[in-house]
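Hey all, sorry for the wall of text incoming. These are the four entities for the joint prediction.
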Amino acid sequence: MTRIENSKRTILNLAESLLQDKGFNGFSYAHISSELGVKNAAIHYHFPSKEDLGIAVIRRYRERFKLWINNSRVKDLTPEAKLDWFLGIYTNMRADQGKVCLVGAMEAEFNAIPDGLRDEVQGMHKELLVWLQSTLEEGRDGGVFAFKGEPADKAALILSTLQGALQMARALGTKKFHNVIEQIKLDLLK
Amino acid sequence: MTRIENSKRTILNLAESLLQDKGFNGFSYAHISSELGVKNAAIHYHFPSKEDLGIAVIRRYRERFKLWINNSRVKDLTPEAKLDWFLGIYTNMRADQGKVCLVGAMEAEFNAIPDGLRDEVQGMHKELLVWLQSTLEEGRDGGVFAFKGEPADKAALILSTLQGALQMARALGTKKFHNVIEQIKLDLLK
DNA sequence: TGACAAACTTACTATTTAGTAAGTATAATC
DNA sequence: GATTATACTTACTAAATAGTAAGTTTGTCA
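and here's what came out:
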C-alpha cells in the first residue's frame, strides 16, 4: 500500500495537467490512477465525482491567481512589467508540453461539461478580465500603453487572443505563438 | 425504414454542429443517430470510424471556404468589406446557438483527437491564415488598414482573437463578444 | 423480371466510463 | 492498548462508447 505524499494535491496537479492537455472529456479517472499507481476508487475517495475534481482544479487556480496579484511581487510592478508577467504565464503554458489555458479548454467544450464546472470557469474568466482591465487602465493613464476604445474591451480582446493563440500553437507551432505575443505588444505599447 | 434524403450530407451537418457545440470527445454516434431517427450502424455505414467523420466535416468546410473566397462575391470586395464578411462568419457562429469555430474546438482537445483529424485541422488553420494575411496586406497597401508589424503576425493575432472570443462568449455572453469584434476593428482600421 | 447495389436494421462485442459498497491497513488520539 | 479516522484496495455495477457481421428492404437498370 504505497501512499502518495499529499495525495489530494498530487491528484489536483495531474488533473490540472490533463485538463490543459486533453480537456474535460478527454481524460478519465483511470488516467490519473494509473499514473499515480493507485486504484480508481482512490481518486473517488478524494473527489467523489469528476465534476468535483474539475471544480477543485479551477478553484485552486483562482485562489493561486488571487494570491499572485495581491502579492507585492506582482502588485508593485509597473504596468508594463505586469503585462510581461501575465504574458509569461501563457508563454510558460506553451513551453510546458503545449498546454492551453484552463478557461479556454473548458469553454471549448462548455456545452459538454457539468453545470457547477461552468460556473467556476465563468468566475475565473471574469477575475482574469478584471485584473487585466485595471492593468490596462493603469498603463494608459501612465502613458505606456496606447489603444483606442475601452480598457474592458481591450482586455477582453487580449485575453481572447492569448486563449486562441495557445490553441493555435498546437497546430502551427511555438514560433507562431511567440509572433502573436509580440503582435499583442505592438498593438498595445506606445 | 424511413430514409433520410441525402443522408451523408445530413449526417455531416449534424456532426459539424455537434463538433462546434460539444467538441470531438463530447458527442457520440448515438447523438447523431437518435437525432436522425436511424440506428447507430447507419452512421457507421457512411463513416466507418469517428475519425473518418471528423475528417469529412473539416474537409467539407475547407472546400466550402475555398469556394467562397474564390467566388467573385467575396473576391471582388474591398479589403474592408472582406474583413466584415470574415468577421460575419464568426458573428453568425455565435448567433447560432453559441457555436465555436471548428479549428478552435479541435485544437482545444488536440491531444485527445485522432492523428488524421489533427492533420486536417492544421491544414484548415493554415488556409484561413493565408487568406486573412493577404487581405490584411491588400488593405494596408490600399491605406484602409493600419497596423504595426507583419501582416502574417497580425493575421495570426486576429484569428486567435476570434477563436478565443467565441469561446469566451459562452461564459460571458454575446455582448462581450461583440465588444471584442469592435475592438479588432479599432485596432486595425485607420 | 431478375440482378445488383445502396442504404439501411438487427443484434452483437469488447472496452471504457463514472461511480459505489464493503473491507483493510495504517496513523493519530485518547 | 483500544478506538477511531484516514487513505486506501477489492470487487463490483450500469451505462455509454466505437465498431462489426449478417441479414433486409428499396430503388435502379439491364
